[in-house]
Nicotinate-nucleotide--dimethylbenzimidazole phosphoribosyltransferase
Amino acid sequence: MPDFTAVPQLRNRSAEEPGRLADIAAWLAAAQDSERAQPLSRPRAIIFAGAHGIAERTIDGVGIGPHTGADEERWRENIATAAQRAGAGVDFLECAEAAPIDVSPAMSAEQLEHHVELGKQAADREVDSGADLLIASDFGIGGETVAAAVMGRITYTEPVAILGTRTSGGMTDGMWKTRVTIVRDAMFRARNLEGWEVVQTIGSPSLAGLVGFIAQAAVRRTPMLIAGPLAATAAVLAERSAPGVKCWLRAGSSSPEPAEALAYKELGLSPLLDLDLGAGHPLGALAALPLVELAAELA
């Protein structure tokens, strides 16, 4: 399975003055290997888009969420508009569809390696093209449920706890019960697996791509904003594969998903914004980008 080289860690620096903006500026300066943070010239958002087989699954006639295919095009347009307003380039990387993780492996070993390599190549391509800050997120119905299954398995968290009990935002009690059942069955299928086998069995190609992207961007010494449960889960997996990745990360915004909060806790990250996004997760990092840019300007 894929392996990563040692990741260079940021030098330990503290801001001259306390405060969140000073903390962001100090982190950015360290990533830039500069005494003071320098203004960003080419931030880029890379969105790993992929369908998840569980999005079509129903139990007793009820699916996992209220979102439909029509929502996807609208969210793509919203993300592109937000990127333009934030002054960031954006690229959607299309990933293969994952099989339903509660009943079959998400992907083959070959697909896993292909998508990890896809993510690594994307990171190299962006850095080689001059990107000085990268945004990593995902797009696709069911990604939150995949993140819950993987985070639940690798942290030994019960399905109900990793999903929480929130049913707002259009999610009914029936949808929540379907999610719990899918996550429970997926975690059971992966109960004796470790490492990359977990990703292959109950993850998704877009998750694999994000792991490769985040880990390689850290190798290339590039600061990153991450957003959404799947990207946060990918960051945990990347950190476990190559300790030091988390030093290059900041979390853009929050979501109501416990899996994302648990991932940020393990990484030692606090979201820059608290937007409580239930969908369109890349918007959280794009909304936080001006905050990072302001910190650099004020530095």
